[in-house]
Structures are given as structure tokens and as C-alpha cells.
Amino acid sequence: MTVRTTVVVGAAAVALTTGLAAPAMAAGTDRHEATRQAVRAAVKDGVPGVTLTARDGRGTWSTTAGVGNLRTHVPRAADDRYRVGSITKTFVATVLLQLEAEGRLSLDDTVDKWLPGVVHGNGHDGSRITVRQLLNHTSGIFNYTADETFARTYFLKDGFFQHRYDTQSPEQLVATAMAHKPDFAPGTSWNYSNTNYVVAGMLIQKVTGRTYGEEIRHRVIEPLKLTATSVPGTRVTVPRPSSRAYSKLAETATGPTYDVTRLNPSLASSAGEMISDSADLNRFYSALLKGRLLPPKQLKEIKTTVAVEGLPNAGYGLALMDRELSCGVHVWGHDGGIHGSSSVAVTTADGRHSLAFNFNGDWSGNSDAVIEAEFCGG
């Protein structure tokens, strides 16, 4: 569910880093060689397997490394489907911006206008929080995945294997957050909170009368023909073709490795439950940046960023992050982490050069290096 550009231990963690340069390529060499090297380096670092697809004006290119199954040693495939975690957030924000374009809500509406009484308790006040603040993480709402009991229940070994098939409603997830004080007053700072997007999903249902998943299918998946993309709800399996997903289920990157492929993704809800593949993610982000999903006004809104402390080369929009790479190229997209799966999808501002990839392990590997290699290595 997390946003991250480096793999970290535990889906409740958040890490955002930029600027790791890839090795320069000599003239005349394979323009994807640096990307291949970065993918292999991730496997050498301990990631079980990687699948990656890039698309630009010269066509679509894929590479894989490592295995999709540690028991059978079957390799990863270019068309593997995987849990995309917080990449879900960009789909959710896109739907809300479409609703704004239709005049059905405003980014300046308060949460209480649509969901009275939902965001209240311990200092939380939905009458002071806007839809925009939910989407750019300036609401101050506590992140429910940072709740210690929730983390022990779903992210550490004993709790995970006892509770991995539990169903959590959006209301339960928000209530977990409301048991804590806000991180800050609305609009005064920035902090990544999965609760923001659980509330955003609830908003979509309140405004449209249909679940956020139904709206994503109707408004994004079907029009773009994203045949590998789904909103699983409580379905515990990942559709084939797919690989297994692995985690240490610990606070460190050492110890045994566990197969965590099967889980009830309602624990992530509209903050991170979706499934896709690399080709579909490239198609989605390219279409978004090219203006195929949003009118100009809403496209400008989704790309309006706020500063993220400690990241001088990055800004966070409405579930769309802008990163300036070491070579000066700007890429827009999002990262996603959920048990045993770490994913990245980015594209250039014109939508012409896109990259999406997945690590099927959540404790190692340098995804920054892969991004740098693709966009700066050649």
C-alpha cells in the first residue's frame, strides 16, 4: 500500500528516495542494457524475481530476471500479473477528478459534506479537510497501517498467517485511524496516509452510488482495455499468469522467506488492493499524462504537486509523483508496496516513454536504479 521508490520491509513503511545514477552506456550499445543490468542487480541483491516492460516511440520492450516460484524455480514472465499496492491510488484519484469534471463534486468540498461523521475523533475533523487534501496527503489524517496492533496483525509472521483471510471494511480501517490523534492540522504539512485513500474510495461510492472498483472498471479499465487489471475486493488469489509473492514478515530483512501470495486485499481497500501487469500500467499512465482520461483543468490539478520534506527532487500531486532524475528527465507516476510485491510505474510528462516493473519480494532491491537506468542510462 505504500508509496516508495526503494523496497522496504513491511507494507506499513514509507520510503521515498531519488537520484541513484545508473552506469553510462557507450555509443552504439543496446539502449536497454543498463536496464537489464539494474534488473539483474536487484535479483543479485535478493529479490526473487523481476518483471519489467517499457514502452516508447520505438516500441514495447520487456525483460525478466530471477524466478517467479522459489520452490519450482519457474522464471518470471513478461505478462505476470501482480498486486500493485498504492498504484491503486492513481486510479482512485483519476475517478474523483473525472467526477469533478462532470460537476458532481469539487476538490474543495469537505469530507463532511459527503461523509458526515466519518472522519471524527481524537482531534480529526472532516469539516476542515478537503477532497484535495485527501488526495495529496496534506489532510493530517493518521495512517491506519501505522497502528501498532494493525501492523502486528497483518505485517508480522504470526499475525499474518492467522489473519490473512480476514475481511476489513473501509469503515473499520478508518476507525482504526480515528483511534489516534491527527499527524498535523489540515493543510499545514505532508504525510503519507493510506487512510486518505480509503476515505477517497468511500467518497466515490457516496457520490456515484457504486463502489470505487465499479467506477474504476467503468471509467478506466474498460475504456483503455486493460485486460490484466482488476479490483479484487476480497478475492485472495492473483489471476494467472502470475508469480508467487514473498516476504520476510519481519521488521528486518533477515530470516526465513514466506510465500504470501494468498491474502484478502480488503486490508488495503482503495488505498492499495488492485492487480495489474506492466503493459497495462504503462498504458494507463501514458493515457493519463496524454490527457485521454482527464480534461486539461483536471490534468493540471492532478499534476499540481506539494513538497515532500527530505526530497528536493520530487513533489507529490494527486496520487501522481513528479521525480527529477539525475539526468534531468522528469518522470510521473507512483509506487506500490503490499505483502511480497513492490511495484513502480512511471512515464515522461508527454506520456511517450513509460516504464513499469515488479519485484516479487518486499525486503530488497533498488527500484531507483532501475528507473535511472531506463531513462538516463542510454
From TrEMBL:
<feature type="signal peptide">
    <location>
        <begin position="1"/>
        <end position="26"/>
    </location>
</feature>
<dbReference type="InterPro" id="IPR001466">
    <property type="entry name" value="Beta-lactam-related"/>
</dbReference>
<keyword id="KW-0732">Signal</keyword>
<feature type="domain" description="Beta-lactamase-related">
    <location>
        <begin position="36"/>
        <end position="362"/>
    </location>
</feature>
<dbReference type="InterPro" id="IPR012338">
    <property type="entry name" value="Beta-lactam/transpept-like"/>
</dbReference>
<dbReference type="Pfam" id="PF00144">
    <property type="entry name" value="Beta-lactamase"/>
</dbReference>
<protein>
    <submittedName>
        <fullName>Beta-lactamase family protein</fullName>
    </submittedName>
</protein>
<dbReference type="InterPro" id="IPR050491">
    <property type="entry name" value="AmpC-like"/>
</dbReference>
